[in-house]
Design goal:
Radius of gyration: 22 Å
Shape: globular
Low-confidence stretches: 394-403
Number of strands: 16
Mean pLDDT: 87
Number of helices: 13
Largest sheet: 6 strands, mixed
Structural class: alpha/beta
Order of helices and strands: EEEEHHEHEHHEHEEHHHHEEEHHEHEEE
Helix content: 25-40%
Strand content: 5-15%
């Protein structure tokens, strides 16, 4: 069952306590228990985190402890492929109605929006969720990204959120498909069932309308190669051991330990160091104390096989935190029972809330989304007749396009 509030952190190989957590560990403030008894039972496991040197004000980077110059000679060494999987600037509401057309005046107005180098869906989610609850106009949205895999993943997230009636489950499923490196067997099976059961695979042809809900349609501009990407990703079963090794090598490239990891950790508070280190160890977006052993299937949208070797797609410094407002994430985390120290737990609850609201609007509003996988420079002909608003996005290292 998806967690909607912070649960007791007492879990082991024999099972989990599903009671609500009400008492935090007084030292790390990252895990919560339902009782003193559960806290005592879990201590043999939790002490590995709680007593970690990272959880100390006295922690220092290795180059300081060893009295040496930090290794900066291989600053760019990384085993990751450096693909932009997650957005690296906070989500934008590109309509910003209160400062443009006005909220009241826009409740019945039609909008055409273009995300010409969209990357993930965070800006679409932010914009749609900012519309009035009683919005009755029409939204026409262009999503384009030069990477067909990005567009295919965005389509899959939209399909899950639009078709599933259980919005709590669909939002968590979409969240993990988007952000977690490993998924559960149940999640993988369910995503495949949603895709195959939708009956829309044959409709994913250039210009075809796919009805995801009674009021929402998706117009795809997929060629055969794009459709194969979608099917191949869902049918691929990568080795857990190989994916874990690829992630470990990316997070621990020797030339990056001094120049990125330790220098970054040095400016963090102890509990935030622990939170980031756990992300860099398990790569699953969950509250710090949540069980994750069942999340063991490599996410085919975050790992890829290349020349017989499994590779980690994002950069080693990319995290789910970069795409959303940190204050809003912390506020959401606190509302669900965690603390500001568990940054990734806060992100989990915030993104899940946003996706639940987005799913509700996908099923309520009149929306058409057209999906393209072109170079942004080839989009003007479409945008000229289609859109009133342009989104500002990163096109790659150092390049942007905007209004």
């Amino acid at each position: 069952m998806p967690p909607s509030t912070l649960r007791c952190a007492n879990h082991d190989s024999e099972g989990s306590c599903d009671n609500a957590g009400i008492r935090f560990c007084s030292k790390c403030k990252l895990v919560c228990y339902c009782s003193a008894d559960c806290q005592r039972k879990h201590w043999p496991m939790h002490k590995l985190d709680c007593n970690s040197p990272l959880n100390s004000e006295k922690w220092q980077p290795a180059y300081i402890r060893q009295s040496r110059v930090p290794n900066l000679n291989v600053l760019n060494e990384t085993h990751a492929l450096g693909v932009t999987v997650w957005g690296n600037i906070p989500a934008l509401d590109i309509l910003n109605l209160s400062r443009n057309e006005g909220v009241a005046a826009s409740k019945t107005r039609d909008f055409s929006l273009a995300y010409v180098a969209c990357g993930d869906l965070r800006n679409v989610v932010k914009t749609v969720n900012a519309l009035p609850e009683d919005y009755s106009g029409s939204l026409n949205i262009v999503l384009n990204d030069h990477n067909p895999m990005t567009i295919c993943r965005n389509f899959l997230v939209l399909l899950i959120l639009a078709r599933e009636q259980d919005m709590e489950r669909s939002s968590e499923l979409a969240l993990h498909l988007w952000y977690s490196l490993f998924l559960s067997e149940f999640y993988m099976m369910h995503v495949s069932l949603v895709l195959l059961g939708s009956g829309c695979l044959d409709d994913l042809k250039t210009g075809n309308l796919v009805h995801l809900t009674g009021r929402m349609t998706v117009q795809t501009y997929f060629d055969n190669a794009d459709r194969m990407i979608l099917m191949r990703a869902m049918q691929t079963r990568l080795s857990r051991e190989d994916a874990s090794q690829a992630f470990y090598e990316s997070m621990n490239a020797p030339g990056r330990l001094d120049s990125f990891r330790d220098m970054f950790y040095a400016i963090l508070k102890p509990h935030h160091r622990l939170a980031f280190d756990k992300w860099r160890s398990i790569g699953v977006l969950l509250p710090f104390g949540e069980a994750h052993a069942h999340m063991c299937v490599p996410n085919p949208w975050i790992f890829a096989e290349q020349k017989g070797k499994v590779r980690y797609l994002p950069n080693d410094h990319d995290t789910p935190l970069q795409g959303w407002d940190i204050d809003a994430m912390v506020a959401a985390g606190k509302a669900h029972g965690t603390t500001e120290f568990d940054l990734f737990g806060c992100a989990f609850f915030y993104v899940k809330d946003e996706l639940m609201a987005f799913a509700h609007r996908l099923q309520k509003f009149k929306i058409n989304i057209s999906l393209h996988a072109q170079d942004a420079r080839d989009m003007p002909a479409i945008l000229e007749v289609f859109c009133h608003h342009w989104a500002v996005h990163e096109l790659g290292e150092g390049y942007t396009i905007g209004e």
